[in-house]
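How it folds
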Amino acid sequence: MTGESKTVHKDQKAPFLMSGCKVADGYGSMLVTGVGINTEWGQLMANLSEDNGEETPLQVRLNGVATFIGMVGLSVAGVVLGVLAIRYFTGHTKNPDGTVQFRAGTTGLKQGFMGAIRILTIAVTIVVVAVPEGLPLAVTLTLAYSMRKMMLDKALVRRLSSCETMGSATTICSDKTGTLTLNKMTVVEAHFIGTRLDPCDDVRAISSSSAALLIEGIAQNTTGTVFLPEDGGAADVTGSPTEKAILSWGLKIGMDFNDVRSKSSVLHVFPFNSEKKRGGVAVQSDTGVHIHWKGAAELVLSSCKSWLSLDGSVQPMGAQKRNEYKKSIEDMAKSSLRCVAFAYCQCDIEKIPKEDIADWKLPEEDLTLLGIVGIKDPCRPGVRSAVQLCKNAGVKVRMVTGDNIETAKAIALECGILDANGVISEPFVIEGKAFREMSEIARGEIADKITVMGRSSPNDKLLLVQALKRKGHVVAVTGDGTNDAPALHEADIGLAMGMSGTEVAKESSDIIILDDDFTSVVKVVRWGRSVYANIQKFIQFQLTVNVAALVINVIAAVSSGDVPLNAVELLWVNLIMDTLGALALATEPPTDNLMKRQPVGRREPLVTNIMWRNLFVQAIYQIAILLIFNFSGKKILRLQNESPDNAEKMKNTFIFNTFVFCQIFNEFNARKPEERNVFKGVTKNHLFMGIVCVTTVFQILIVEFLGKFFKIVRLNWSLWLVSVAIGVVSWPLAYLGKFIPVPVRPLQAYFKPCWKSSRRDEEEGRQG
C-alpha cells in the first residue's frame, strides 16, 4: 500500500529526508508497512486494553463479607425452617386462641399444605433479608456519586472502581514537571563562553560567530515554532514548556526564527530520547554541515571534548574547565533549575549517507560545548500543604523525574517531599540508572525507602511500581507521556494529566487529572476514602438490621413456633435497609477526618472493631427490647382486654413499628461510626434527610392504611409514642457505647485459623 505525501517543509532544500524516501518534483513517496494492530501504536494499545482481572481491595473484602453474611443467613433460615416444621407437624404450634394448628389425621390436606407454605415463606424471607443484595447497589451508588462530585474537583474518572482503590493508596509516584510544578518555564541563568551571563539574555560579550552558531542550534534543534504577527505584536511561541522557554530566551538574545531556519536546511533529526536525555539535528548551511545537540546538561557535557571561548575559538576541555562547568550545573540544580546544555560538532558532507539516511546515527562524541542554561519551573501554590496532607494521611509521595538528581532534590525539598533534616542520599534519593541496574531482589529491598528518583526513564518508573506492588503497596502513578503508559497501566491507579498528557497516557489511565495539579490528586484520595467510609457505614447499618431481625425471629420461632415479623414486614425492612439505606448513606460527603487516618491496606478487614462494637450495642438493645415485648407485650402494653387474635396482632404490629423506628434512628448513628456527635453536618445532606422523612411517612401509611396487606392493625397514639421513644433511645445509647474501648487486633483475627483453609481454597480456585 503506497501513498503520496503532499506536505513538504518550505525550508527543506537538501536532497535528504528523515524517512529516507526519494524526492521527485517536490513530493515524497511514502510506503506503509503496517496498519492497525501491526503498528507500534496498535500493539501498545492492545497491551493496554488487556484486563488483568485483578480485583480491587474493596471488591476482595466485599466478597468475603457478602459470602459470610449469606452463609449465616442460609444457616439461620435452615434452622428456622426445621424448627417451625417440627413444631408445626408435631402439634406444638398454636393459634392465638390456644388451639393447635395441625393435628395428624385431623387437619385437612389443604390446611396442612398452607401451613407448610407459610413456614417456607418465613424461611425464604429470612434468606432474602440476610443476603446483602444491597451491597452492590450501595457500592455503585457511592462510586457514581463520588465520580460526579470529583468532576468538580478536576478529576475525570474513567474506571469506576478506581475511586475506591484510590482511597486505599499507600503511595503516590508523581512526576515533577507540571504536576508538582507549574510547567511554566523560563530561562533565568545562562553560562556561555566559560562565564555566566548577567543578565541571562545579555550576549554582548559573545562574538557574532559564536552567537550565530548558538542561535542556529536553538532555531533548528527544536520541536517548537515561533509565529510573528504581521501587525508587529508579541511573538507566539508554541511547543513543550521546555522548548517554549528556550525559544523565548532565543528571541531575547536576538534570534530571528524564520530567517535562521531559511538559511540552513535540516538533513536528519534524532528526536529527544527519554533514555539518552538528548535530541540532535544535522543541518546544512553555507558554512558546512553542523550537528547540534541539546539535552541534559551533565550528559551532554560528558560528550564534549572542547568548548567555545570568548573570541569564538575552540578550546580543549581540560579537567579544570570541565569541573567548572560541573560546578555550575550543580549550583543551578541545587537552586531547583532544570539544566539544559547546547553542543555541536562539524561533519564532512562526504560522511553523510546518500541513501538510507533514516538509519544514519548522528555523531554524539567529540562535541564542542556552546553553553548551558538554567530553566526555572516554580512549584505550584498549595503543593507543599498537599504533600503534608498526604503524609498526615499515611500516603507516601515519591517524586520520579527525568531531571538532574540535584534539581530533583531541590524541588523535593521545596515541595516538602524531602525533609531538610532527614537523610538525602541513597537509597532515599537515587538515580534511575542505579535502580535499573539492580537485581529484582535488590530493587524490592530498597523500593520502600526511595523518595526521589532522578534521571529516570519511563521503564524505571515501571520497575519501581512493580517493586512497590510486590511489597504490598497500593500504588498510584501520575504520567503524561506515551512512554508512561506501561507504568500507568501496571499501577493500581493510573492518573494521567489532562492538559499535557498524550492520548495514549489518557487511554491507559484510570483517572484523568484535568488541571494537572497535584492538589487535585490529593482530592481524589479524599474522595476515595469517602467511598470506602460510606460503604463501611452502610455495612454497619445493614449488619445491625440483619443481626437483630435474624435473632428475634430465630428465638421466637424456637420458643413459640411463630415469628413476630412476617414475610411482608421483613421485605419492607429489607427495602429500608438495602435500597433506601444505600441511597442515604452512600451519598455522605467526605470530611477532613478522612485524611487524618492511615490508609487501609489490602489485608485490613472491612468490618473494623469499632463497627463491631457499634453493631453489637444497637443489636443487643433491639433484640432485648423486642423479645421482651414479644413474650410479655400483651401485659406490658395492657392488651388483656382485647380479643386474643386482636391482641396478638396489636403486639406484633407494635414490634414491627418499633423495629422500623429503631432502624430509622440508627441510620443517624451509622453516619459517624467513630464520632460521638452523629448529627454533625446532617442538615447539609439533603438526600439523607429526605430519605429519612420518606421512610417515616411510608411507615405511618403502612401502619394506618395498609394493615390488611401487611396483616397488621392500627396503633393508638400512645403506642406510637412508645415506638418512637424506644427508637430515640438508640441515640444516647450510641453516644455512651463509643466510650467502650476496642482491642487493636481485628476481631476476625481470632477466627483466622478457621477461615484460613477456606480462603486458601478460594485463592486456588481463582488461580485455576
